Amino acid sequence: MYKVFVNEKKLTLSKYPEDIEKKLRYEGFATLEIAVDLLQNTSCPELNVYSENLAELWEDFTHLFTVVESAGGIVSNQNNEILFISRLGRWDLPKGKIEKGESLEQAAVREVQEETGLEELILEDFINNTFHIYTERNGDRILKITYWFKMSYVGNKQPVPQTEEGITAVDWKSNPRIQQEVFPSTFHNIKLILDEVWEKNL
After folding, report:
1. How far is CA 196 from the centre of its chain?
2. Cβ atoms within 10 Å of 199's Cβ, excluding its own
3. Which of 26, 53, 93, 140 stands 20 to 30 A from 165 (CA)?
């Protein structure tokens, strides 16, 4: 199953129909175009496209977009707090595009270092991918795939925001502060990946 966010609305691609109101059996590219259009241009809150051949469905879906890959980190400190960045008024996790010749792991560590100024990082587990769709100013439709890694910070420096990338703050947040401060002002993908970390007890 794949969960892709379109304007913060969830498009689920699955093998079997999900238990939600709006679902479409996959019958070719037109089904996917209709699904994306409904989420982008109507009040439809979520939608499910299903096909028994999920691999084919996903492959066809990716062909509708320019795929951009990025990597990022869920970074914990010795107090079991998680590192967040603030950009454009929203809390987010540090991440960025993978550069040519980089591995996923190298890109994730580099992006955390650049966006937060912290270098004493220990790379741990790969968590999962998240997916979202957006449209560039030139009209290109982008499917962004982000690969998330669990990391630990073992230093004692204060994080510093990468202001040239529009980051205005970097902060360690405890679980209660994540619930109170981050979740009301973040993206669905960030909630998804954090829930996965907590479920796995990582």
Report:
1. 12
2. 8
3. 140
Splitting the chain (202 residues) into consecutive groups of 10 residues, what average pLDDT does each group show?
94 96 95 95 95 97 96 96 96 96 97 97 96 91 97 95 95 95 94 90 62
pTM of the full predicted structure?
A: 0.92
Contacts of 41 (CB under 8 A, 6+ apart): none
Dist CA 133 CA 56 (whole Å)? 19
CA distance 74 to 94: 8
Q: Are strands 167-173 and 82-87 parallel, antiparallel or unpaired?
A: antiparallel
Q: What is the DSSP letter of 65?
A: S
Instruction: Name which of 95, 83, 17, 6 is nearest 42 in CA terms.
Output: 6
Helix axes 29-41, 54-62, angle to 10 degrees: 60
What backbone torsions phi and psi does residue 21 show, to the nearest 5 degrees?
Answer: -65, -45
Q: Where are the beta strands (DSSP E) in the chain?
A: 2-6, 9-14, 23-25, 46-50, 66-76, 82-87, 90-92, 95-97, 121-135, 141-153, 167-173
Give residue 36's pLDDT.
95
Take residue 104 and report the two structure tokens written for it. 């996923």
How far, in Å, CA of 137 to CA of 91, rounded? 24
Spell out the alpha helix ranges (H) of the chain: 29-41, 54-62, 104-116, 175-177, 188-200
Tell me, what DSSP letter sits at residue 98?
P
Report how far Cα 112 is from the mean position of its chain's Cα atoms: 15
Q: Is 161 helix (H, G, I), strand (E, B) or coil?
A: coil
